[in-house]
Amino acid sequence: IERSSICSGHVNFRDQSMNQDLALQSSANRKFATVDLSEASDRVSLAHFQRAFQSAPLVRGLIDASRSMRAELPNRQVVDLKKFASMGSALCFPIEALVFFISIIASRCCRAGQFPTRQTVAKMARSVYVYGDDLIVPRDETLAICADLEALGFKVNSRKTFWNGKFRESCGVDAYDGTDITPIYLRRDVPQDRGDSSGIVSTVSTANQLHEAGYYRTATSLRRA
């Protein structure tokens, strides 16, 4: 998928830098909007997957045979899964990314009144970037695309979707007017004894992040602590 002529550079699974760079650039030039989805993997249904892969029945059959069809609840009740894949499945991330990518392109083609040929799909894909549920779309089409995503059963996180103003956020990068303003979080207290190995590892990691961001005194203080 990452090497295909249409998806290459637009659907990424291992490198977040494209989305991060575009969030930074768009906070200044406002060319793109950053869109975030809630309950992303839970809302990609088996029906979404089957419809998206209906023209590739062999691939669809192989993928379908690899997914979990049922889940056992804590009360031992077994239920059939209507979502495509649960968290932890190796299939979850790539399939959800591809389904979101296809859905956005379908929205753009439909609203532009263009039949989805290979040429029109390639044209519409040039301005769409997907990393999991972190989406980047043309700013002036944001509301229409979000409405269509919700019509397909997805849930747009309006609190983390940005198209107006100078702020953008994607793949962990917070950007304002072309400046990276991503905060560094101290997610836990400094360990109180040497036995707290995970706490020591976490604190060292935070100190390293602070140092890389230029907060040298804070990093040194944390290491001393």
Features:
9 helices, 225 residues, 4-stranded antiparallel β-sheet, alpha+beta, single chain, 3-stranded antiparallel β-sheet
Mind explaining what this structure looks like?
By secondary structure, this protein is α+β, with helices and mostly antiparallel strands. The chain is built from nine helices and nine strands. Helix 5 packs across helix 7.
Give the secondary structure arrangement, pairings included:
Layout: H1 17-29, E1 32-38, H2 40-43, H3 46-52, H4 57-66, E2 70-72, E3 78-80, H5 92-112, H6 118-125, E4 129-131, E5 134-138, H7 142-151, E6 155-156, E7 167-170, E8 173-176, E9 179-180, H8 197-212, H9 216-224
Antiparallel strand pairs: 1-5, 1-6, 2-3, 4-5, 7-8, 8-9
Helix pairs in contact: 5-6, 5-7, 8-9
Helix content: 40-55%
**Spatial sequence of strands, sheet with the most strands:** 4-5-1-6
Please give the largest β-sheet: 4 strands, antiparallel
Strand content: 5-15%
Tally the helices.
9
Q: From the helix content, strand content and strand pairing, which structural class follows?
A: alpha+beta
